[in-house]
Amino acid sequence: MVEDKEIDLLNDDDIFARRISVRLTPQNAKFTRSANDLISMEFTNSNGTVEFFERVVPLRAFPITDPDEYIAIRLPETKKKGKGFEIGMINSISDFDEATQKLIDEELSRRYFTPDIKKIYSFKEKFGFYYCDVETSSGKISFVMNNPTSNIRTLEDNRVYISDIDGNCFEITDPNKLDKLSLKKIEIYL
Amino acid sequence: MKLMFEMPAEDELKFSDSVGKDEKRMYCVPYNFEDDKQVNGYICITDKYIYKLLEGELLAKYKLSEMNDFIAESLYGSCGFYAKINGESILICRFISGRNLPRYSVIVTACEMLAKGEGKEALTSNEPERFCPKCGRPFVVHTKICPFCQSKKDVYKKLWAMTKGLRLMMLFPLIAAIISIIFRFIIPYIQRIAIDNYIIPATGIQSGTFKGFILIVVAIITLDIVHRTISVIQGRMAAVSGNRFVRMLRALLFEKIQMLSMSSIQKKSTGDLMGRINQDVAVVQSFITSQMPSYVAMFFSFILALSLLIYLNPLMCLFVFIPLPLAIFCILKFKNIMQRRNIRAWILGQRTNRNLQDVLNGIRVVKAYGNEEDAVEKFVTCTKNQAKQDESNAKTFDTFFPIIGFIIHLGKYFIIMYGNILLFGGRMLVGELSQFNSYANIIYEPLLQITSIPRNISNFLTSLGKVLEILEEEPDVADCAMPINQKIVGNISINHVTFGYDSYNPVLKDISLNIKQGEMIGLVGHSGCGKTTLINLLMRLYDATEGEILVDGINIKDFAQNSLRSQIGVVLQETHLFSGSIRDNIKYSSPHATNAEVINAAREANAHDFIIGLPEGYNTMVGEKGYSLSGGERQRIAIARALIHNPKILILDEATAALDTETEKLIQDAINKVTAGRTTFAIAHRLSTLRNADKLIVLDHGELAEFGTHRELLDRKGIYYKLVMAQKRAELAKQNAV
Asked: ∠ at Cα B536 (B535, B539), nearest 5°?
């Protein structure tokens, strides 16, 4: 198995050269609002060089249980290279000042758009699909679900997540706070 | 798939105001989110600008020539349409993923082209809609059936057409049912005559009338016997014709599924297909053979009974109907309550099952981490909840069901009460009352079932729709009008082939290669880059979206599929052995092979030794319920299977799992033997296979990155070099560790 062009393999690390994700703090990362309301970042490397990223994408590591902790900052997806690599991770959004928190929160709530259901007007089953009309924090919405047993999930702290057939997600923060009629309609799935 | 939507009047108006005179409207698609609200907005794209319209307002206008880097990104619960304008990233709009993502994927490509100044012709897409264009509701999963818009007439027409050979047989049960109904109505009449004219006045018997009475009794008994005989015959005929129909339907369905192309089968899961063949056909059968005849009979009986009741005594007829509304209301309410409870019980039961299956499947892990107590606690909670629900359901049912029964029969008590008043007043005879009672029973009988009729009909229509959908589907990959059937030599040309399982997501992009007969080509690349897809295209399991594949200069689409595939041998990653003997499995590609040929193939594949060592030799049963073979043994049987029919083109998808050195050597040797002199495509992971290849193809994200011999590619120090070096490091590390 000996090849002619053998190189000192065990020390040839640039084959696997990848960017290493670092912890981002206000000291090494400055977030600014880009020209079109997205997030730009100025990043200072450990060796002092400064990099400017025109657009970065924040992603929650625990979107359901701990939405404000461990937010990954990545380069955006491109058609050629697929998912962008991770520049760093914010341990907790409260590490940063208010303006930055607001900026990142805005982008995150756009990305993780999950209206909160306040009232359920109707929840009817027809031909295997469930047609629902609800009142949410984003107004009145109608959606279609196809498998309530697997698409209505109750989490440990009693929050309920509902996904519809289009991939939209809705949340019920506390099912017990819903009015009786609404609760009746979905309690069999909780 | 629709790419040009009509906008509501106010948006259309605003658009015409804002658009320039020389602009051409190319696409118009909806978007669904703005700030934190769900909205109905539109993105209208001309050949120069992108317009964003919402409720009569022009929210934004972007110049295409200043833009690039369009992309549709999946967010959580929605998707975003991003681009760069003058180098700065921008979010154009957000939309609902399920409905609109395929649309935006085409829009992204279209915008890229328009931004560069190309693409003046509007793009179209053949991606099927998943939502009904008429009512906007989703189709039944994996089908094009909209339950709301489906024309019931069409479905019934098709069903009628399918019963061609069985119509005569289905007529008999109908006739028998009609006769049966007639008898049912005659018998009470005869009984009435018996009671009124013979039994009641029996106290003052006149001898002559006794004969008449005997006649009546004989008549009743005869009628009853005839009635029952007819029922028996009816039952038999219904069973036979119903079952024949189902058998024919099942066979048709299975045959059609076999003939369908890979792409449509892949879209449906095995469970779905099995469900259609087993359950949906069963629903259709049960409806046609038992439910529908009984509904028809019920309906006629009801009408007949009603008319007779009105004829006999209209006032008392009213009494029959008074409690009906209350009864129906109570039954409906009761059914709803019980259904909710049953669903809940079912859900809890499923949870328990899932828990059980999970834990039992992973019992090793449970024990390894010492979590037995935890597992027990979880399971106990599940079963406790389930048991509580079941108990509650049983209590509810047992409390209310008798009450419902009473309400249903309320009418009877009215009849008896009023009837007796009439009786004692001399205005009605006992026999009359008895006849009336019998007819009233006929009306009450179906009461409990009436409420389930609509649901049964809709289930039937849905199941029938699913069955018909497959029967009517045209296979994607079909033989052309005059398929060629000739011996293949083995020269392959791939010209500018592009393909994606979803048309908007190409997995292979513009691949071109030329391979001569007998060459062994190694396919390498990181996982997910398109290797298996290229092989699928060579086997013509899918047709390329663009470009063509030529075998010996002839387009593979012009070959008869059977002819093409019978000359291609395949050794796949996961060896699937059918239930049967080893000999059956080896002969699978060549059913007329002799025993000698089977043994030869096994010898070449280095499988003979271990097969002979098995107690039943080549007759050993393998597969689902048979002897369990090890991975290396299965691979070698697969190689023997590929060898036996001497294919001109061989496709080899190497198993990635590492085996012990001895088995590795045996398999390597077998592979060498099997590839000699054949045009071979091998997805290779082992260095030894790669070194033996005549040429190597390196795929990167679906594009042809590198093409050349082992030596040439190593010298280039590109992707191939990295892959080889990585594997070498792994081997070195393994060796050093040992």
From this structure: 90
Best mutation target among B76, B94, B104 (most A Cβ atoms within 10 Å) is: B76
Is B488 in contact with B558 (CB distance < 8 Å)?
Answer: no
Cα separation, B687 vs B723, in Å, equals 10
Instruction: Looking at the complex, report in whole angstroms how far the Cα of residue A140 sits from the nearest Cα belonging to chain B.
Output: 8
Higher pLDDT, B324 or A126: B324
Query: Which chain B residues are closer than 8 Å to A167 by Cβ?
Result: 77-78, 96-98
| A168 touches B: beta carbon within 8 Å | yes
CATH assignment at residue B209: 1.20.1560.10
Q: Where are the alpha helices (DSSP H) in A69-179?
A: 98-111, 148-151
User: Can you give the pLDDT at residue B2?
Assistant: 78
Chain-chain contact of A189 with B347 (C-beta, under 8 angstroms): yes
Does residue B295 lie in a domain region? yes
Percent of chain B whose pLDDT exceeds 90: 2
Query: Are B220 and B300 in the same domain?
Result: yes
- A63 contacts B77? CB cut-off 8 A: no
Residue pairs spanning A and B at CB distance below 8 A = 123
* A143 → chain B, closest CA residue: B137
CB-CB neighbours of B202 under 10 Å: 12
pLDDT at A18: 63
Tokens standing for residue B89: 């990233």
The answer to whether the CB of B714 falls within 8 A of the CB of A4 is: no
Q: Is residue B228 part of a domain?
A: yes
State which H helix or E strand residue B581 sits in. Answer: strand B580-581
Q: Which two tokens mark B7?
A: 């906008």
Average pLDDT over residues B495-501: 86
Q: Which domain holds residue B51?
A: 9-115
C-beta atoms surrounding A122 within 10 Å? 11
Mean pLDDT of chain B: 81
Q: Does residue B220 sit in the same domain as residue B288?
A: yes
Query: Distance (Å, rounded) from C-alpha B27 to C-alpha B68?
Result: 18
The CATH number of residue B608's host domain is 3.40.50.300
Shared domain check, B174 and B74:
no
Contacts of B251 (CB under 8 A, 6+ apart): none
CA-CA distance, A174 to A182, in Å (whole number)?
A: 12
A169 at interface of B, judged by CB pairs closer than 8 A: yes
Predicted confidence at residue A15, as pLDDT, reads 45
**B390 and B416 both lie in a single domain:** yes
Distance from CA of B22 to the nearest CA of A (A): 28
Predicted local confidence at residue A102, as pLDDT: 92
**ipTM of this complex:** 0.84
Q: Which residues of chain A from 25 to 64 reach within 8 Å of chain B, CB to CB?
A: 34-38, 54-55, 63
Partners of B715 on chain A (C-beta within 8 Å) are 5
- Which residues on chain A are in Cβ contact (under 8 Å) with B71? 76-79
Which chain B residue has its CA at the smallest distance from A171's CA?
A: B77
Same domain? For B412 and B439 the reply is no
Mean pLDDT of B430-459: 79
How many domains does chain B contain in total?
4
* DSSP class of B129: P
Q: Which two tokens stand for residue A86?
A: 């991770």
- B504 lies in a domain? no
Q: Do residues B92 and B164 share a domain?
A: no
Question: What average pLDDT does this structure show over A67-82?
Answer: 81
User: What pLDDT was estimated at residue A9?
Assistant: 45
Please indicate, yes or no, whether residues B433 and B411 belong to a single structural domain of this protein.
Answer: no
Q: What is the mean pLDDT of residues B354-361?
A: 86
B277 and B210, same structural domain? yes
From chain B, the residues in CB contact with A132 under 8 A are none
Residue of A nearest to B78 (CA): A168
Q: Is the CB of B732 less than 8 angstroms away from the CB of A9?
A: yes
